[in-house]
Amino acid sequence: MARRRTRIRSRRVPRLAFPPLILVAGLIILLVAAVIYSNSQGEEEASAERLPVRGASVSGVSFRLPSGWAYDQVETRTRLANRTEALYAYPPNPGDVLMTIRAPFPKSLYGDENSSITAILSAYAPQTLGGENVQIGGAQEITINGKPAARASLSSDTMDGFVVAFEMSGMVLAVTVETSKGALNTYESTALEVISAIRYSQPAPPPTLTPTS
């Protein structure tokens, strides 16, 4: 009696589509990154065109300004203004703006390493910017170049302005913006763009001199 052969049918295991999906996802990520990089490069180039004047201070701060603006340094402060005459007039003359980049300082002077930048500005502003005629508003959180920063309003009978504080390279930078009364709206966007273009790197320590015999 002949034996009946039993056929064993093998089932095909479906191939997973993970590799193609991973490749597609990787390409999408690369495309998005390329678009973001291109946009950031375009924004930097546009900002450089709007702020063609470059300057730097001995404290390690560098900045860019609109054409026609002027700057100078007084001790540890760097002053920026829409014209040379505005650097030396206070309160600002009608139609003028004066910006001051204060000396960079560590957070520990007005808080600790865990203090928010808003808390730092809340402690810093009354001690350094307050006066009999200057009113300081409450500090509010904002962003500068996508990073946390803080802003508080400044006002007096003859001046309108604000102060912005932000962290960079382990230090806190504070920048005041002061205009003649009623002129803040004219310069606010330009001042914020100038602040966004500020860079800081701690200056190298002076070389150690070896006494000669």
Largest sheet, in brief, is:
8 strands, antiparallel
Estimated radius of gyration: 28 Å
Q: How much strand content do the residues show?
A: 25-35%
Helix content: 25-40%
N- to C-terminal separation? 117 Å
The tally of beta strands, per DSSP, is 11
Q: What general form does the structure show?
A: globular
Q: What's the tally of helices?
A: 3
Give the mean pLDDT.
Answer: 84
Determine the structural class based on helices, strands and strand pairing.
alpha+beta
Q: Any low-confidence stretches, pLDDT <50, length ≥5?
A: 35-43
Order of helices and strands: HEEEEEHEEEEEHE
Q: Please, could you describe this protein's structure?
A:
The chain is α+β, with helices and mostly antiparallel strands and 213 residues long. The chain is built from 3 helices and 11 strands; from the N terminus they run αβββββαβββββαβ. It has helices at 18-50, 117-128, 184-196, and strands spanning 53-56, 61-65, 70-74, 77-81, 97-101, 135-136, 140-144, 147-155, 159-168, 171-180, 199-200. The strands form 2 sheets. Strands 3, 4, 5, 6, 7, 8, 9 and 10 form an 8-stranded antiparallel beta sheet that branches. It is globular, with a radius of gyration of 28 Å.
List keywords for this structure.
single chain, alpha+beta, eight-stranded antiparallel β-sheet, 3 helices
In short:
The protein is 27% helix and 29% strand. The chain is α+β, with helices and mostly antiparallel strands.
